Amino acid sequence: MALLITDDCINCDLCPPECPNQAISSDAGIYQIDAARCTECVGHYDQPSCMTVCPVECIEPDPAHRESLDQLAEKYTAMYS
After folding, report:
1. 2 in Cβ contact with 67 (< 8 Å)
2. Signal sequence span per UniProt (predicted)?
């Protein structure tokens, strides 16, 4: 499942450099996660690095983009092969 950044985001700028897939960007000062690039850090880390650094815990699973661990691993493989 891809992740999403909720409205609780304080735009602290910590999450974009942590994302190994470059899935986090800012549009008009609002951070968003590109579901097509988000693997929840599968293939890179044991847990999503953006969630680890978020001081207000505003990053959560995106119910609109449900994916299994196998699907996330396949997405990672497709991006890096």
Report:
1. yes
2. none
Residue 21 has pLDDT above 90, yes or no: yes
CA separation for the pair 73, 59 (Å, rounded): 20
CATH value at residue 13: 3.30.70.20
Contact 2, 65 (CB under 8 A): yes
Distance CA 1, CA 8 (A): 20
User: Does the pTM exceed 0.70?
Assistant: yes
Count of domains for the chain: 1
Strand partners, 61: 3
pLDDT tens-digit profile of 41-64? 999 999 999 999 999 999 999 999
